[in-house]
Specification:
- The chain is of the alpha+beta class and 106 residues long.
- It folds into two domains: 1-45; 47-106.
- 66% of the residues lie in helices and 21% in strands.
- It has three helices and five strands; from the N terminus they run ββββααβα.
- The strands form two sheets. It has a three-stranded antiparallel sheet with strand order 4-1-5.
- A hairpin with a 4-residue loop joins β2 and β3.
- It is rod-shaped, with a radius of gyration of 34 Å.
């Protein structure tokens, strides 16, 4: 058995009965896979060779997206911590000014 990836629906008549092939990957006999009419509408594929790189590429993309998301989250957390420190300093400075003005008023 071979696998073909049909890119355009077609019919193949080998034993006086047409056999229809729909778009997508299908298992077929070797005689069907190598027929010139099949090759005009499909490609012969090795499922492991086709699926494995796609899965690996998808896994790599997912891992990169996760790493990017973690970096963005860490960067946002660092930025937030720095902003909190600036606000705390501004509050401390405002409290000191208020204390100085209050001391002058008394």
């Amino acid at each position: 058995m071979k696998q073909i990836n049909v890119f355009k629906r077609f019919a193949l008549t080998l034993n006086s009965t047409p056999q229809w092939f729909e778009v997508g990957v299908q298992k077929v006999e070797a005689a069907v896979a190598s027929h010139w009419h099949t090759l005009a509408h499909a490609t012969v594929v090795d499922a492991d060779a086709v699926v494995a790189p796609v899965v690996s590429a998808a896994d790599a993309e997912l891992a990169k997206a996760e790493a990017d998301a973690l970096k963005a989250k860490a960067d946002a957390a660092a930025e937030l911590k720095a902003a909190e420190a600036r606000v705390a300093e501004e509050i401390k400075a405002a409290d000191e000014k208020l204390a100085a003005v209050t001391k002058k008023v008394k």
